[in-house]
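Let's do one together. I've listed all components of the complex below, 610 residues spread over two lines.
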Amino acid sequence: MGTATETFYSVIRRQGITRRSFHKFCSLTATSLGLGPLAASRIANALETKPRVPVIWMHGLECTCCSESFIRSAHPLVKDAVLSMISLDYDDTIMAAAGHQAEAILDETRAKHKGQYILAVEGNPPLNEGGMFCIDGGKPFVEKLKMMAEDAMAIIAWGACASWGCVQAAKPNPTQATPIDKVITNKPIIKVPGCPPIAEVMTGVVTFITTFGKLPELDRQGRPKMFYSQRIHDKCYRRPHFDAGQFVEEWDDEAARKGYCLYKMGCKGPTTYNACSTVRWNGGVSFPIQSGHGCIGCSEDGFWDKGSFYDRLTTIKQFGIEKNADQVGMVAAGAVGAAVAAHAAVTAVKRLASKREDVDHNS
Amino acid sequence: MMDAVAPASDARPDLAAIASDASGERAVGRPTVYVYEAPVRICHWVNAFAIIVLMVTGYFIGSPLPTVAGEASDHFVMGYIRFAHFAAGQVLAVFFLTRILWAFVGNHHSRQIFYIPVHRKQFWKEVLHEIRWYAFLEREPKMYVGHNPLAQTAMFTGFTLFVAFMIITGFALYSEGAGIDSWQHKLFGWVFAIWPNSQDVHTWHHLGMWALVTFVMVHIYAAIREDIMSRQSIISSMVSGERQFRD
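Okay, and this is what the predicted structure of the assembly comes out as:
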């Protein structure tokens, strides 16, 4: 899949794309990344001069929804990303090579591009039973991951699986599926969570890394700030209904038809960091809340283990029977209230009794 | 801070003096000690008011009021509730901090709610005595100028620790709206290192509210009860600052 020596620009031109379209692409990318006016020319310059970055894309315990999302990117088109911007040397799902041929590419990349390639990981390694719950190329995936991470420049953790663990790590996590950053600790890791992540976010991250040769600025949890610094709630188009106090109370009520806020229906927008309410999905067509369903918080850590997607207050499982904070609190307050009342009653009785004693004693 | 670890027993009034006052004829002047200085009292009532506002508004943030009809632009119900919550939260934070600062400046009673002398055997003995008193196993309560050892333990846990927890998680949650460049996020963003999903921070903040509700119930009950049973002023002391011993 290419020798990774030609520049992006020559690949782009070879594909019959005009210089004009090329510059359009550069400005569009700069805009979608939220960069300044000079960035477009810098992107163009980088694409004209830099060799394409080799990318190894591996699949661990996952469902391939990240790949499905990725191939639907519209700005930039995934075709541009895969065929022009990066040199996707290995991706067992979509590559032509198979078997020993495919595995040979891994060794070749490690030898030829030591410390220069990007390791994109979709899914995560299960660690239980020596990693045998995910065998890839005859070896546990965790071994392959560690081997390829050794010589990588940086690692992209695609999706909720690689970033947080996702549903295969749901309690009790029998395979001990473990997010990438718990396994690889000596390499820069960029988390691009979501189940799946937004296509434009994925290609945007790839574009940034290939353009500037470094990782974008990350937040405290290792996510690129440019896409994950705000909550769905902060940029939700239904936010005015939230501030007004207008909520959908049931799925088929008048408020639902009017498009009121889905807060009471358990929308996780207020606790979810992602770009859905700005970038949206399928080329900006829509996103879950626009379609009338609350956000399920799929880019957040542990979203699969936080009770119903349709409850406002999170279920607390530690109390045996599933309860939320209000139910637990009211029981506690009720118990203390009853205890206080009982104590007060006993105090009153005791006091009366001792007064009588005093009276008896004095008389 | 040596003064801060002054034994609670030192804080007790001269029992002999009280006894001699009370023996024979009823003493005209009741022994009175100035305990709570003005800043302590002001902080107490401002915090009490803020906490009530925070509890009510906080509850309605978690479980909002029924939907209002009409245009969204005509209403700001949730906005006002959240504003009241945030405003009261900032007030609580400021007066909580003031209260901590006053602990360095004020008399030794002002330091009582910020520590538990865990290393002192006598302290735990007196805690046990207080527990026995509340379990109706002791006939007479001991008298203290400040908080009794059990009350000190309850105040330290139920007020100082719980409120600090609520302020920290509260500002962390506030920083989500304020943005990751805000000072709130710089100071309190580490909370999300403990609970990466802010849904959990919401839940803990919510549970913290109920913990405070139970504390407030016990606090008020104990204050009223001791006012009657321990023969010393409690409630009026938080207004006047003076503690009167009625034996």
